[in-house]
């Protein structure tokens, strides 16, 4: 990881807590299971390092009986993909009266569905690239060639094609030539029944992690993402040597401030709490555009939120300790 000199973060380093028992949920059955397990193990180690009693558990048939028999003080959801991000698990935890770190089920459902989230962002005046959401059934019924021609006429080239619901860059592709669009759509439909096709905005890929440790949402330093092949896909995210990160991002101060402001606006517009990661493009004129918002950010050694925590001169374990303390207090 390459790093530039960090400006002071507005978030103060919280004290750790030692009187809670925390359950870290990781694994699941999504395409992102392996990443989730890596996230869960890192969260577990960080919490224990901060003096918090924690254990790791998969989200399987044994979970609900375990919650009923011995409910934890709080849950950290390190599940990626639908299991951890579509709101369903959070709804079940609500039924069990078990508090958890992160947004509630309603906000999670909204952020998980990219077209719905983009519509909310656009209505709030937050910049996001123009897009069209195309279910596979409509794609077939209306004629693939005619639909794709119209998309190119409306949005132009290049385009970004990605699943309407999903993460980790799975099924995503940049399309620079119209001849490559059908294959990109087929690859996307392998991961979701609806494709999100949006105008590709050239510029700098950045991610802004938002934390609320008790004083309201605050943005950590932006992390700049420089994938070796130009596309931040699954391999670029989780394969050593495929990506260089700059934490904080190499942005002029006024651009960095604008990026943080837009990320905070997106976090608030979607009704999120505790933490989120906002993925953006900063175009060649220095203007930020929100691509998507993640309510269960990766926590692996190459994930962006831990890099932002480090760039903000914070202790990862203490941050997690503060988040679980806030979550536990919601039930108390």
Automatic annotation (TrEMBL):
One of its GO terms (biological process) is regulation of cell shape. The active site is at residues 32, 168, 303. Binds 2 magnesium or manganese ions per subunit. Its EC number is 6.3.2.4. InterPro entries: ATP-grasp (IPR011761), ATP_grasp_subdomain_1 (IPR013815), D_ala_D_ala (IPR005905), Dala_Dala_lig_C (IPR011095), Dala_Dala_lig_N (IPR011127), PreATP-grasp_dom_sf (IPR016185). Mg(2+) 1 binds at residues 279, 292. GO terms for molecular function: ATP binding; D-alanine-D-alanine ligase activity; metal ion binding. Its cofactor is Mg(2+); Mn(2+). PROSITE patterns: ATP_GRASP. Mg(2+) 2 binds at residues 292, 294. Residues 118-325 form the ATP-grasp domain. Pathway: Cell wall biogenesis; peptidoglycan biosynthesis. It catalyses: 2 D-alanine + ATP = D-alanyl-D-alanine + ADP + phosphate + H(+). It is found in: Cytoplasm. GO terms for cellular component: cytoplasm. Belongs to the D-alanine--D-alanine ligase family. This is D-alanine--D-alanine ligase. It comes from Micromonospora mirobrigensis.
